[in-house]
Design brief:
Blueprint (H helix, E strand, L loop, with lengths): L1 H8 L6 E2 L9 H14 L3 E4 L2 E3 L14 H9 L1 E2 L2 E2 L1 E4 L1 H7 L9 E5 L6 E6 L2 E7 L9 H11 L1 H4 L4 H14 L4 H8 L4 H12 L22 H16 L13
Parallel strand pairs: 7-9
Antiparallel strand pairs: 1-3, 2-3, 4-5, 6-7, 8-9
Helix pairs in contact: 5-9, 9-10
Length: 252
């Protein structure tokens, strides 16, 4: 019964976390069944509480799981839902703000109760941070950006105009609007909103009408009304009128 369940719910070399197995059997019985499957070679154990169905290979010992795969399944994508994201130098490198390859991978996730801690798997170190608000498939790309802006100087040494251009492209690519940002900006320090406003205030002007590059003046996100809204938001935070407090997830 257990092996059929695993074959139905997991692909070869996909991490199986014991707490995710939903079968009407006791924890002790489950551990016994898992050990039995390991003894027959039908599944393998990666570390305590983590198993996987080995992928067929011509190699004698098969293809083992990588620590990165396990971490991603545990903290970023769980049961088909996004619950975390990469941050820090990894994110800056990913979107083109840095060429540095991080020695330690930083992840922000729903799946931790600790503000910040280190986790080591097979000698590889990861930094796991608690999310400021619940991460979902609909907001991870917004929270990623706000995290990056919050510590922007740490992750890039590029000129401001290049940084601002990259951020504008990110906003455009993910269709990030004023309304979406307003839902989460209150959980970040005021400097995050200031950096965002500086980015949007230094817009490139399109001189050639035939130019195919992004024309920010054509997007309502960069309108004068929106810029004024962000300015007021920063002033409210500084004056104490707007309080920075965590809140439950606001669905889109």
């Amino acid at each position: 019964m257990l092996y059929d369940y695993l074959l139905t719910h997991y692909k070869p070399n996909e991490p199986i976390f014991i707490e995710d197995i939903t079968l009407p059997i006791s924890h002790t019985h489950l551990l016994q069944r898992l050990k039995s499957l390991c003894d027959t070679g039908k599944i393998k154990i990666f570390s305590k509480g983590i198993y996987y169905i080995p992928k067929k290979s011509i190699l004698k010992n098969g293809i083992t799981l990588s620590p990165t795969t396990v971490i991603n399944h545990k903290y970023i994508m769980r049961s088909g839902k996004i619950i975390g994201y990469h941050t820090g130098h990894a994110l800056a490198n990913q979107i083109g703000l840095s060429t540095q390859v991080p020695c330690v991978t930083e992840i922000v996730t729903n799946n931790t109760a600790t503000e910040c801690r280190k986790e080591t798997l097979c000698g590889q170190e990861f930094i796991i941070r608690k999310a400021r608000c619940p991460i979902t498939n609909n907001n991870y790309y917004i929270l990623q950006l706000l995290d990056l802006l919050n510590d922007l100087d740490k992750f890039t040494d590029k000129p401001h105009n290049e940084v601002y251009d990259t951020i504008r492209k990110y906003l455009k690519a993910y269709h990030i609007t004023k309304e979406k940002i307003t839902q989460y900006i209150g959980t970040y320090p005021s400097k995050t909103a200031e950096i965002l406003l500086n980015c949007l205030s230094n817009q490139p002007k399109v001189i050639n009408e035939e130019c195919t590059s992004f024309d920010s003046c054509m997007d309502p996100f960069y309108s004068e009304e929106n810029m004024s809204h962000l300015t007021r938001l920063i002033d409210d935070v500084k004056s104490g009128k707007a309080k920075l407090t965590e809140h439950e997830l606001i669905e889109d």
